[in-house]
Design goal:
alpha/beta, 11-stranded mixed β-sheet, 16% strand, globular
Length: 466
Amino acid sequence: MQTSYNGIALPLNGKQITYVNGAYVVPDTPIIPFIEGDGAGRDIWKNARRVLDAAVAKSYEGKRRVEWYEILAGEKAYRLHNDWLPQDTVQACLDFRVSIKGPLTTPIGGGIRSLNVTLRQTMDLYQCVRPVKHYPGVPSPVNNADDVDVVIFRENTEDIYAGIEFKAGSLEVQKLRDFVNNELLGNTKKKLRDDAGIGLKPISELGSTRLVRAAIQYAVDHDRKVMTIVHKGNIQKFTEGAFREWGYEVATTEFRDKIVTERECWILAALDKDPKISPEAIAKIVEPGIDFAPAAFGEKIVAEVKDVIAKIGTTHGNGVWKDLILVNDRICDAMFQDLLMKPVEYDVMATTNLNGDYLSDAAAAQVGGLGIAPGSNIGDGYAVFEATHGTAPRLADQDVVNPGSVILSGAMLLRLIGWNEAADRVEKAMEETIRQKYVTVDFAKNMPGSTQVGTTAFSDRVIENL
């Protein structure tokens, strides 16, 4: 461990968080790096920090405290070190394992990839975890906002985030196009056009299984009842479809005593209703159009029914399955509709990268917007918590932006290190402040009878309500 990073000395009284046998070991005065962020990040971070410190102080009566440590990224790093993301900053995130950041600019003009993506890939932060919950009273564009309480696990390193793409007209794209057209598609009618840019979409077994494993484990640990695999496997069978298949494999092999799949539910429910029912009759319940399908398809479904009964009929039947975690899957476009129309049916989701990107933002819109949406990027032994919204540079240093996203991300951080009492205080105080209609402009403009306040005043009230 270095004694300073980017020329900034470490706090004298702080200690490192370590990671032993798959668990964080947290001292009473952990050093936790922070990046204040660009634009409005300056306002929201300093106020979020006050809330988190007050919650810790009140919960542990001075026996615990966070030793915050500033590391540099974004505009401040560029001004001071001519580097958008100094290596010292990445090293500090690695050395101290758990960190938090405000929103960072993605420089315009090419040549520099998203700083957020760089951190995620460097530290292999493969889980983007986005809990989305409606707080009563927060303005929403939908009527059923109170039904939204979902945690989205978005794969964070593959799919479009792999960043493997080639510009139209480049030598690289020409080589790739010629290889694909001549070697892989030579005997087909499919061809890549001459004027196409080309991106690759890798989805691996490792990337898929570890993400789904984390989502199911979260459901187990937090008494969630449904875990949904979201994909576009009906079209992209060997990437999105493989994600689905690998996800089910993890569920049924590693969590067999804790889960039941949706199709297994149909089979077990039919068997519970009529213990003498034949596999052929159950097959017609599982696949209502089976009589019109080829015989081979029908035989496959009957074999599936027999296999389920043989493997879990005793352990999961007679109603036992009703108390287990339901693992199902949804095609992403149907999932988007369901998330809007019947969110109460969903609990935890595991998604590929792009699908999780738009679904998490859409869910956030239902509960008041990204201003109150926390997020984290989690790996094995590493975590970076963050505001999920942008930098809002036109609102920088005006004390008007909602700090809720960073405050609630900080509460997630506190939970990760086991300081649940402080995290509970933060969340309850946020809810109470909103209930009092003492809110920033993003909420006030659609909340009749509210008192519109700035970032600092809102944070002051949250602290009062701790």
